[in-house]
Amino acid sequence: MRVQKNDFIKYAHDEESADDQEETGWKYIHGDVFRYPKHKYLFSAALGSGTQLFTLTIFIFILALVGVFYPYNLGALFTALVVIYALTSGIAGYTAASFYCQLEGTNWVRNLLLTGSLFCGPLFVTFCFLNTVAIAYQATAALPFGTIVVIFLIWALVTSPLLVLGGIAGKNSKAEFQAPCRTTKYTREIPPLPWYRQTLPQMAMAGFLPFSAIYIELYYIFASVWGHRIYTIYSILFIVFIILLIVTAFITVALTYFQLASEDHEW
């Protein structure tokens, strides 16, 4: 915030002293920052899936804090995850289709298909592998065939229709993206950046700092999993989750600002 304040003061002083002075930093690329992303369908699908997972997490925390997941009911959490995920799929469809249409996308059906498979696809592959290993070793953790059929029916009869209905509602919404400034016709060339401003170092930094905020609580969670104990301190976990959201938001704003200050408009 101090860096932003100093920049605002500097730019305000430059405007008062010399209007024809060449702009620099984030002010120099104001005509490129609101340019649509290259892979708008993937961006919209990630927004939709992320919104659904965030809503799912909030509902799970609410149920945990009111005492629904007591220690002797081990299947309650799994059931709640499946049911709430199915019921919130409309949120993913609406968010993805709404943002996709705001970005002037045309193939909204492909966007919905990607939204529905962006999280379920990798999860299904991982589940099939782990369940096959559990069946091969005759472990009790393997899900029976009847439970798998029920989950598939929930996905086919609840998740998919709600996803389509949410997508239709988002497609027909009247929301339009209006940039606060005019986007230039030609893309401005990004100047050479130092190595620590590249994508991979930025991703590592953006992931390490939020992870460090929840590392201690993750230690106790994995200790409970590996030690075959039941984790019941949901109130502390909820506080840690709020801290994670705050740290992630601040890190995102800070890294985006420094990227724009380096005249990199592909934020």
Structure description:
With 267 residues, the protein is mainly alpha-helical. The protein folds into two domains: 31-186, no CATH class; 189-267. It is 67% helix and 0% strand. It contains eight helices and no strands. Helix 2 (40-65) crosses helix 5 and helix 4 (89-102) runs antiparallel to helix 5 (108-136). It is globular, with a radius of gyration of 23 Å.
Descriptors:
globular, 267 residues, 0% strand, mainly alpha
Task: Give the beta-strand count.
Answer: 0
User: Shape, please?
Assistant: globular
For the terminal residues, how far apart are their CA atoms? 19 Å
What is the succession of H and E elements?
A: HHHHHHHH
Helix content: 55-70%
* Major sheet characteristics: none
Number of helical stretches of at least 4 residues: 8
The amount of beta strand, in percent, is under 5%
Pfam families: EMP70
Family: Belongs to the nonaspanin (TM9SF) (TC 9.A.2) family.
Membrane topology: Multi-pass membrane protein
Keywords: Endosome, Golgi apparatus, Membrane, Signal, Transmembrane, Transmembrane helix
